[in-house]
Amino acid sequence: MLKICSSLVATLFLCGQAFADGSALSDRRFSPEPLDAMPAKLQWKGFYGGGSFGYGNGGFASVVVSNTTTGAKISERRFTKSDGLMAGLFVGYNRTNGNFIWGGEADMEMSTIGGARAIAGGGTTSFEVLQQASIRGRLGYEMGPALVYVTAGLTIADIEYAAIAANGSGNSDNNFEYGYTVGMGIDYSITETYFLRAEYRYSQYADVSFVNTANTTQFDFDSKFHTVRYGIGATF
Q: What is the per-residue pLDDT across 107-136, written as a single tens digit (0 to 9) for each?
């Protein structure tokens, strides 16, 4: 009898131990692992800045050449082969209201955009954008890691114009020209601090007119530019 009781107790003990081990295994098998904390996203509110580079085209820029005595138009040509590169810096400030973001931004760039075009009857005209700057407002909408925005404002550029008439007399004008710029773009956050940028802008400047040194020919420049920029920025 004592042997039977001993065997029964040993069996119950082993069964209990196995049940406990099974329960522990079950707990390990079905208990969910704690989730890692979600990574913090970039906060668009506040100051930001960065650098950009891009490409510009002045295919819509044109020049009208006229006779100063009669006022008759000699020719009107577009600068169809006029492009170049640009690089510069930008800085801005954002405010937020839910997913909507608005604020202001300023930029300054060096440029190699330029072109030349022959005029009817002989002679050539040319232009070159040496540098440009702008101050603009921005309105955007946050879509996950992306900020899609539109922008518009004032721009100023140092543009050098030159013209040589058929008789060899020429003249040039190099002034800061004012205008407006509008566009759209996207900022895409890649970390909690840094973001990438792609932007398109159209800029138009005030017309420029001057005559050649012989005072026989007038040149009227109409400056319009399309630009595409890529950049990287950071919030701070």
A: 999 999 999 888 776 778 899 999 999 999
Within a domain: residue 178?
A: yes
**Global pTM value:** 0.78
What local confidence, expressed as pLDDT, does residue 83 receive?
A: 93
The answer to whether residues 118 and 158 touch, using CB atoms and an 8 Å cutoff, is: no
CATH at residue 203: 2.40.160.20
The answer to whether residues 93 and 104 touch, using CB atoms and an 8 Å cutoff, is yes
What SS3 class is residue 4?
A: helix
Q: Which residues contact 53 (CB under 8 A, 6 or more apart)?
A: 85, 86, 87, 229, 230, 231
CB hemisphere CA count around 38 (13 angstroms): 3
The CA distance from 121 to 170, in Å, is: 14
Q: Quote the number of domains for the chain.
A: 1
Tokens at residue 63, please? 């020049």
In DSSP notation, 39-61 reads: PPPP--SEEEEEEEEEEEE-TT-
Enclosing domain of residue 194: 46-235
Task: Give the CA distances from residue 111 to residues 54, 167, 176, in Å, rounded to whole numbers and listed in that order.
Answer: 9, 32, 14
